[in-house]
Amino acid sequence: MTERADAARNRAAVLAAAEALFQREDLDHVSLARIAQAAGVGKATIMRRFGDLLGLVDALIAPRVTALQSRVRSGKPPLGPGGDAVARLHAYLDALLDFVLENRTLIRALEHYGPHAYYANPASRFWIDELADRIHAARPTVDAGYLAHAVFTALRADVIDYLRWHQHMDTERIRAGVHALANPPDLGPNLHR
Amino acid sequence: MTERADAARNRAAVLAAAEALFQREDLDHVSLARIAQAAGVGKATIMRRFGDLLGLVDALIAPRVTALQSRVRSGKPPLGPGGDAVARLHAYLDALLDFVLENRTLIRALEHYGPHAYYANPASRFWIDELADRIHAARPTVDAGYLAHAVFTALRADVIDYLRWHQHMDTERIRAGVHALANPPDLGPNLHR
DNA sequence: GCATAAGTGGACCAGCGGACCGTATCGTAC
DNA sequence: GTACGATACGGTCCGCTGGTCCACTTATGC
To answer: Are A132 and A145 in contact (CB under 8 A)?
Structure first.
């Protein structure tokens, strides 16, 4: 059964309105009613189509997630399969950070509407598992399972936003920090307990 | 002017009821009305005394924060002043992690009621600055400012809870991971890009 | 015992996410 | 072109939230 024409039109209007609102407004000034109003649609239309606000946000990022996933799964190295393990790790971190920087508002909305939905998300599970694999390949001796979660947490959109706007760190400093977190490039003397 | 006797009694009742509720109930089932009811007090009483729910949670953790702060500022080494820089860093991490484990519910409430209040908190600023100092002393070559924030983020109560309950990591694994994050003990070959 | 300042709590508010269901529109079969 | 069943629609209602208001009670100092 194909989607009815008015339904498709409304779905598009809702997605567009939601995206615009999330970009423009502060996160907690965006509400179901405001999205509905901006899309010229009733609240119930949004609810039925997307289940809840979390579903709406999911629908917004889903295509971008799949795009990045396919680059990771079958793109060209070092982000895609093949190549040096260390290079693969760093390429992956760059891709994740860029993804967060480009989609900060949506990711923050995702974190906002589902407290642990962030980690529990199928997408996040993919990112974390992949991260753990690449950490393990590059640094076989560390606890890749824990480190993957820690690094992924450091990539949360609210954390990045906080570092940028409240701590005035520029993105390249953050990028360097994330890389160093996953794979410390320098260790001086006297660093072990 | 001294606090009126009934006011003091109510303050204590509210604090006790709030603490009990935060411990027992899931965070988003705790509401102003329920705390008030449990304390046998009107909502307005809570509001006027603590400003808002964030203030209430603040009042609950404040004494524990000051207790730990004084141990850090003037306790015995290595947590207090003096001693080896690396030992000081690790002692501090242990103290922070223990603090989070002991006060998880309150810290989660704090994070919940003020999205960035968590970091913006004067207390958090103290923890982070101190962490940056100790990281810098132990590892002068790293970006201690960034790393302090990253490690502190890894110590967020919601993150710890997630790792424990959803990822089934025991606390000692998390502890080891946090230490390694702040000061990686081992680096094999081929780890630099 | 009384004046008065301090403290109180239930009614009230605007806002939220979400559910309901009578109605309007669409796609289709004729 | 028309009639009809399925689908999608949105205004209205619900329970709940954090927070405010203000007529009332109570503890305290004299």
So the answer is: yes
On strand D, nucleotides with any atom < 7 Å from a protein CB are: 7-12, 16-22, 26-29
> If we measure between CA atoms, which residue out of A104, A115, A19 comes closest to residue B115?
A115
Write the CA distances from B177 to B5, B170, B173, B174, B189, integer angstroms: 48, 11, 6, 5, 20
CB closer than 7 A to strand D: which residues? A 1, 3-4, 6-7, 9-11, 40-45, 48-49; B 2, 4-6, 29-34, 43-44, 47, 52-54
Euclidean distance between CA atoms A114 and B158, whole angstroms:
12
pLDDT confidence bin for B18, thresholds 50/70/90: very high
pLDDT one-digit tens code per residue, A62-116: 999 999 999 999 999 999 999 999 999 999 999 999 999 999 999 999 988 877 7
Could you state, in order of their start, the residue ranges of all structural domains in chain B?
A: 1-51, 62-182
In chain A, residues with a C-beta closer than 8 Å to the C-beta of B191 are: 86, 138-139, 183-185
Domain B1-51 has CATH 2.40.10: no
Do B183 and B89 meet the contact criterion of CB atoms below 8 Å apart? Answer: yes
State the average pLDDT for chain A: 91
- A130-142 burial, b at 16+ Cβ within 10 Å, e below that, comes to bbbbbbbebbeeb
A4 DSSP 8-state letter: P
Q: Is the Cβ pair B192, A183 closer than 8 Å?
A: yes
